[in-house]
Request: fold
Amino acid sequence: MDSPGRRSRPVPGNDGHPGGGRVFREISPLDGRYRPRLEALSDVFSEFALMRERCRVELAYLTAFDATGLLPPLADDERARIAAAGSSFSDADFDRIKEIETEINHDVKACEVFLRERLDLAEPNRIHFGLTSDDVNNLAYSLLVRRYRDEIQLPKLRDLIGALAGMIEAWKGVAFPARTHGQAASPTTLGKELAVFLSRLLRQAKRLEAHRFRGKLNGATGTYAALVAAYPDHDWPAFADGFVEGLGLEPNPCTTQIEDYDSLAEYFDIVSRIHAIVLDLDLDLWSYISYGDLVQRTVSAEVGSSTMPHKVNPIRFENSEGNLTIANALLRTLADKLTHSRMQRDLSDSTVKRSIGTALAYGHLAIGQTLDGLARIDIDEAALRAKVDAAPEVLAEAYQTVLRAEGVENPYEVFRSATRGKAVTLESLHAWVDGLGVSDDVKARLKALRPSDYTGLASQICDRVLADVYAWFSA
Reply:
């Protein structure tokens, strides 16, 4: 995705000047149809953001290297220019880096050349001193992805968890038809069905929050060789560990030229699992709507079909499903590809990493669509209760279990014969109960049961999950 304010760039014309050509049109729905939903992601996943983060890493390294005392200290005016460069990065800065890159065909080196120009240091060789490109690149990517997780991804996930928690509070006692294999099964409550997804999401949200991204700063083949050659008596592993930790990352001291990406792959796996849970939620909600268990609030101006005026389609859950499928296909590819390298390195990883933002953007978009769908859901509690009570055969489980406790011989077979493949009513069930050799008290207990009341500890299960959620929110 492009950066804010850089929506479309002129395409060079025959004269080679940007202004002489046509305007480039987006080829991705992320930069076209869905752009208004994804503006915030441009500040972490655009080429502009990557160049800015590379420069910030270079500047942080420059300051840290100065603190070693191995070279004469920076002058006050030089430190001021370094601080200014670290706090501001403009379109003009980005354009200059891209201009340099066009000439030398190396993006990280272009950042170094740009900083040499901008900082005008008395000793410019200290910029990028002893580093290889991936020392800068791996740190920049880890910092960008961590920023996305902390500032955008986790807040969006909290929104989803919060929305589900509110619905569960409201509907934890609402009788709801359960289905196994698509057939009527022992009833549940709507709140408890949603609590299953909430519990799963909370588990993964905690893992996402606790995940630490790693970074390396050990040179061209992971041996600190250039730094040791220049200053053999300095403790470079300790310096590198301190620098990486200072960025809020976990040091990875043993690598090839490139950081091994295992922590990124672990992160992608967590995100993929979150996406899988949300997709599962989408599928169930879509099915509940299609069965008529849930209804969707309408918006007066919307249409659901170009020819069928009555349609109110669950399109938000469908859109989320589709975008989550794309997101997870990309995330799984990233997790697999990035953890493989030809010996010290090859550049296939550099190409693949450029799609990290695309993969995460599809997931971010999808979770927003699920939230939109949840905001449209409503219920008719009386209708749901009536629907649950319209399937009295589900009480056969309760009947045969109570009778097991009473010592009745093989009660499962008794009620299998009474219910399987047959039209069942409460009256027909009660007739079977009347013929049982059990006490009148047991018969009365069985006859008092109604499907809509046969929901076990569903409400308490909801309370337990909600308590965990509220504890997480308040931590």
Q: What stands out?
A: The longest strand covers residues 183-189.
